[in-house]
Every structure is written in structure tokens, then in C-alpha cells.
User: What shape does this take?
Amino acid sequence: MTLMETLSAIADAVEEAIKKIPNSKERGVDLGMGADGTSTSQIDKIAENTVLDYIQRNNVILNVLSEEIGYVDNGAEETLVLDPIDGTSNAIAGVPLFTISMAVGTKALSDIHTAYLRNLVTGDVMCAEKGKGAFKNGQPIHVRPASDMNDLFMMIYLGNGAHPDSFALAKRVRSSRAYGCASLEMEIVAEGEADGFMMYSENYQREIRVVDIAASYLILKEAGGDVYDLEGNALDMPFNLEFRSNFVAFGDRRVYEFVMKKEGIVKNPVYGVAVNIGVPDAVAYTKRVVNALKGADYVLDTSAAQICGVEGVPVEDMKVDIIITIGGDGTILRTLMKNDAALIGVNAGGVGFLAEIDIKDIEEGIAKLRRSEYLIEERFKIDTRYNNKYLTKAVNEVVVHTDSVAKIRQYRVYVNDELITEVRADGIIVSTPTGSTCYAMSLGAPIIDPRVNAFVIVPMAAYKFASRPFVVPADAKVKVEAVMDKGCLLVVDGQEEYEMKGMTSVEFTRSHERVRFIRFSTDFYSRVREKLVNSI
Assistant: This one.
């Protein structure tokens, strides 16, 4: 009998044994503390005893490391790492998500060579041998690539020991589940049905043990995935019940990078510095920022590098985690058009509504940044589609306006293909909440809290006084049609222009991409008071 056949026979015996437990109440009878320091239930002990009995009766030459009894030295060279019932609470509650998890190796996760996992309700079998691939019910399984970081489906531990970052991650991804069975949750990633599994407990006693994931670890690895700890290292755990760990299991490395950004915070980040050389005292401010970054990894854009007498790279080529801009809001918007790193601005311009660090506070602000004493505020962008092509994404707004000075145009505006207004005006603004404090505000549109998912549609210098701004849901499609056979311009964030012919239309939708602003405080209303109400 091969090792895999032996593991299958053990699982058969356990499945038969637990079927004899008459009801859920009997399954959950508390038998005291197990070797791992957690409560042992009747179902756990019956399953474990069945495994130990099988090994003894059939002279299986393996030591055993099990959740309840601990380490059993049978004088063998290799050890069966066993979780007789993973998902005990599910089993007691009648939830069909619990397994027997078995893996064989010598000393640690990294040397496991055979793994066997069975859902004891459905009978599904997942197994792997090192170097031979992973299988579910005899069919090969593979992880899936993560094509869109805004469309992730994650398994996340959300129990009563869960770290707050786990709940934050659940809000960032498209969808998430918490099944209370780590072996199955990791296996779901292995078979390509989920993008990742995050185990992050703030209570060490609730972190994962090697017995919980020994089998699913190898299954995931053989399916093309990987497992890292929260420090960025490949996860390895000794065969020791005292050792516990948090981790992220994933099919695509980009998923790990996304998860570890948490609220955008990355350990040991690489910084980028981008400067608007045209602002007064740009040289002095740049030198102060660079000096404050001494000892950190950073990259300078071509302008900042020129000031410092070193080699730089264009903003679009920066491979960094955080960009520090020196300038005004225009500098921030230009940078965001070229790079999707998290961004914090040093306000060397005018109002600097989007900037976070005042010039008098450069050293203090960079110090807080390096200590990770910040939050990330995410904002959505606008996708603009014209002539069947997508233009540059906008953070603030897209403006449709006349291409001739002092000439009025006529526009029809649709929301989800329903006409909402026809107006004669200099132009139409379609703005995000971020842009509501910019051009749209100057035309009398409302200021929108960035937590509100909405567009504001603003006529510019409308001929009729009754032509007022509209606030519409951000999941709507907005279409602006130029009625007259006369040209217009499309202007994205005041930075890029595109020609728009008369008698054509342009469509706006919420982008899947999001911009990430680094904030020391997310008090939006204080920002409005300080930078808008009291500044002018």
C-alpha cells in the first residue's frame, strides 16, 4: 500500500467513526484541553483516536504530531502532521465544512512531501505529492491569476481574534468569506476558486498552527500558489504545536502585495520624490524632503534628481510604494496620471487641497510617514470613453467645453441612457467627489464628502438660470452629447486635452482603478474649513 493509499484508508476509518456519533450535542461534548492549549471536543478525540489506532494496528511507520495528543514518537524518521478535525465548530453546528488534514514530512512545512485532505461531509478529496502537482477528486487543480486587483475574492479569518486589518481587507476586496476551516480555505485558493486566504490574528493563541495547514500548504504549493508570513518571507513552520503564525496564502504574488498594503501601508517602502521645479523655492523644499528620507530607499524623478545632482527616472517609470510630490494640486494630479503608487503631497503651491504636508512641517511630516503613522484614503477615478477608446483616467473631473473662445454650445446629458437635461452652456463638467472641491465648486456645485459614491454633473455658464448641477450615483453611466456640428474639447484633470467633434458623444463611468492618498487625518470637514472656507 502506498503512503497516499494509507492516508486515504485512515480518512475512511475517521469518516466511519464520526458517523457513529449520534448528534451534534454529542459531537461537541467538551473533554478538556488538548496538547495545543485549546478545548478538545468529543468529535476531535474520536477522530484522533481512530487515526492512532489505525497506525498501531497496521504498523504504519510514522511518528504523529496531532492537535489533541501532541507528539507521539513511534521511532520513525518521518512524522504524520495531523488535524483529525479541522473546523470542529462547523462540525458541531452541522455546517458541512470540516476536514481531516494529514501531511507527511520530517521537521517543517518546507520538507512535507505528501498531503491528503478530505471534506468529511462531501467526501471531496484533495491531495498532493511534492513535484507531482495537486489534485481534487483525481483531477489536476491550479491557482488562478488575479487579472484585476479590484475584483478579488478572498478567504479571510474574521473570528473573535481577528486583527482589525482583516476587517479592513474585507472592505477593500470585491467579496470575501470566512469559513472557519483553514485547510479548506487554503484549498479553495489552490483550486482557483478564490484569490487568496489571509490569516491575521491579533491574539497569538489564535494564530495558525502547523497541524491546521500542513496538508493544504503542500496542495497549494503544488497547485502553483505560495504562502508568505506578514513580514514578506516564505512561510515555514516547525513541527511544533507551540509555534504559531499569521500568513497570506495566494495564487498570484500581486494578491500578496495588495493584501500587505492593508490600508496602503507597506513595511519598508520604497519612496519616490516628484517635484514641480517651477514652484518658488522648489530647490530648498526638495533638499529638505530628501534629507528627511536619509536612510530610506527612495527614487528621485528627473527634476528632483537634477536638483540633487544625481540620476533620476521619469515618474511613470518609478517602481515605488509611496510618492511624495512637491508642488500644488496640479503636481499631484499630473503624478497620479503617470503612477498608481500611494501619494502624499507637500504643499508648495496655492491652496493645495489635496496635499497633506505644509512646507513648515516637512521634516515632521516625513518622519510620521516613515513611522507609518498614517491612513490611506481611497478615491475612485473616472473612465472616459470617446470614439470607442478610453482616455486617461481622471481623479478630479473631465470637462467638455467649447473649443472656441466666447462661443456657446448645446449639450444633451444622459444618465443610464435617460435624458436628464438639454442645456446651452460653455461646457459640462463631470466630477468625482475629489473634484467637487475644485472646478465644480467654483461653478456653484455642492461639495461632496469623499465617502459618497456619486458624480456631480455641472453646466458651465449655462444660458438658462434653471440649469443646475445634478448629483447622480457613481455606478451610473453618464453620457454627454454635443448637439451642434461644432467642435469641443475634452480636458482631463486640467492636464490633458482631446478633440471632440460636433454631433458626437462621450461616456463617463466609475473606474475600477482607485487613487490612494496618504492622510495623517481623514477629517474631511476640517480640511474644507482650513483650506477652502478660511483660506480666501
